[in-house]
Amino acid sequence: METGPGKKDNGVLFLVAMQDRLMRIEVGYGLEGVLTDALSSRINRNEVAPFF
Fold first, then answer.
1. Which ranges constitute the DSSP H helices of 1-52?
2. Is 43 exposed, middle or buried (0-12, 13-18, 19+ CB in 10 A)?
């Protein structure tokens, strides 16, 4: 992860570990106000989990 002046840190990492049956959404500091933990949880539960 890059930090410093001019860096937005607004990336998103979507991780799916099929064998471990885990899903996770990690967001950069620049998106924490937009993509909250609650919203990430809802996305995983309502949009992603039904496909597995």
1. 37-42
2. middle
Strand, coil or helix: 50: helix
pTM score of the predicted model: 0.74
Cα–Cα dist 26/35, whole Å: 9
What pLDDT digit, counting tens, does each position of 7-51 carry? 788 999 999 998 998 999 999 999 999 999 999 999 999 999 998
CA atoms within 13 A on the CB side of 16: 7
Q: How many C-beta atoms lie closer than 10 Å to residue 40's C-beta?
A: 17
